[in-house]
Design a protein that fits this description.
With 419 residues, the protein is α/β, with parallel strands linked by helices. It contains 13 helices and 14 strands.
Length: 419
Amino acid sequence: MAKIQKIFAREILNSKGMPTVEANVILDNGSFGIGSSPSGTSTGKHEAREIRDGDPGRYNGNGVLNAISNVDKVIAPKLIGMNADDTRQIDLAMIELDGTDNKQNLGTNAILPVSIATAKAVANSEKLPLFLFLKRFIPRNIPFKIPTPCFNILNGGKHAGNNLDFQEFLIIPATNINYKDSLNMAVNAYYSLKNTLTEKNASTLIGDEGGFGPSFPTNRDALNMVQKAILSSKLRINYDIFLGLDIAGNNFYDNGTYRIRDKGEGHINSDDLLSFYDQLSQDFHLLYMEDPLSEDDSEGWSKIGELKSSSHAMIVGDDLTVTNPARLQAALSKKAITGIVIKPNQIGTITEALAVVEMAREAGLKIIVSHRSGETNDDFIADFAVAVSSDYVKFGAPARGERVAKYNRLLWIDQKIRS
């Protein structure tokens, strides 16, 4: 039984040029693992906290030397000598060291990389793919599958300079299409959208998650453009491929009202916004709507079941639920969602993320495992998604190295499962 021999961390840059933490864990048999922490741009205020240095002379105050110090001087002395293969005990030790509900003492960007690196080290020690090692911590025997990817091919909101109110315009292949064909379809649709934008003299510069980031008069115009691109690629909408939105309602919510360009300069209440969503869903047959309301709009979320479109579209919580069991329970009590986004860095450890997955599955929710906008080349999240047999994954557009690393890892796992 291998024990942890050494832990150390270093500062690296994520896909947005922001510092983050990379942790290295070495076992006494020579096996090692490396894990890094992603960062969100559009973050829920109830997420676990990152530790940033605040020194304006380094990375505009966003350095992570204090988080690295927490790994080297606080976490490492506690974990060295522990049995590495007991992921739950490793994670519990770090949770107890931090001592807070939101990881504000040590930082999720210090804790999560160690959690990931330790799991990778044990998987390497046992000569197992990471997804097979993680599978042993799933309490039920669910067959492996490659989740259906939700590709963010057009970026809005905070992911592309607030050129649109809605944050992600998604294309989602039918669930009966195998992963390799889904990836091919998405690439075809992505480049069809690029060609369509070029024909319209619109910008083809890309946003944080690899999707294009042109400006449109309204969100509806953007949906029309995505729909046109899909049709141009000879794919059948609502048969081969479906449309979805990560709306990120926090971005255009203020003091109890919403303001979106589709409704002019005025402010609207949640009832009016829900009616607008129903009309959009009717016109575009939306399969997926994530965070349609602000996390603070308790009254609006209590009415979400009145959405006519909720009978055929997933209503998904992300900022609302932030991979947190208490937040998930509150959403379930309102019958607000039919799906949940899982982001391990929102809660801080692999173990806690697995617990939320199980809680959501018991409630009958769809599971969507997701990256963050500030990603690294670490492909851990792909193995995690397969290990928990998630229904969907969100890794961004089929472009940019930090996104493609995840999609390519799924290709490898798909081949491994099938062989």
